[in-house]
Amino acid sequence: MSRLTTQNIVMELNRAFAEEVEAATRYLHLANAVRGLDRLLVEPVLKEAFTETIQHAEVLAQKIRALGAVPKLEISVQCPAEPLSGREALRQALTFEEAALECYQDILRRVEGDVPLEEFIRSQIAVESEHVAQLKELLDE
Amino acid sequence: METWKEFDANIVTHSAAHHLMAIADLLAKLGYARVSDVARALNITRGSVSISLQPLKKAGLVVQDENRHLRLSARGQALVEAIKTKRRIVERFLAGVLGVEPVQAEIDACKFEHLLSDESARRLVSFLRYFDSDQRRARHFLEAWRSFDQECAHEPHACSTCEEGCMAEALENRGPARGGAR
Question: What is the ipTM score, two decimals?
Answer without folding.
Answer: 0.81
